[in-house]
Amino acid sequence: MSNESSIELPEDIGCAFCAYLSGARPYTILSRTADTATFVTREQRGHPHLLVLPLRHVPTILDLTDAEAAAIAIEVRNAAALINRAYGKPGIAVWQNNGVSAGQAISHVHFHVAGTLEGGGTEFGSVEEISIAKTDEIARKLLGVALGGGI
Q: Which CATH number fits domain 16-146: 3.90.380.10, 3.40.50.1820, 3.30.428.10, 3.50.50.100?
């Protein structure tokens, strides 16, 4: 697969996701595998709203290795299953953006996995940025279900 792309990436002065992964900036990391991480995002466009990304800094889906793509697909499925078990939502949305014109804001490929909002769908407009304390609460609920605990 060629790395040649005409996709216009957002300008990053240091990758926020890489800073979260390294611990340089605080963020709620729900889980990590050898190749991926799952975050609880502070911009809850669904409930809950998680991000699944490769540990390696990779700008777009076109730059993923086959192994990374497979690992991410598994973690997207696992995140959806966890949301389903913990929140019992009538729907789960999964989306991914590549390039400024597609709505990509951070040039580190990531997949959104979100339980639908009351009335359906997710919020693509402006949303309140919640505190890390609140994202940590969401993570505790999800991890409690993952470990076989109650809700």
A: 3.30.428.10
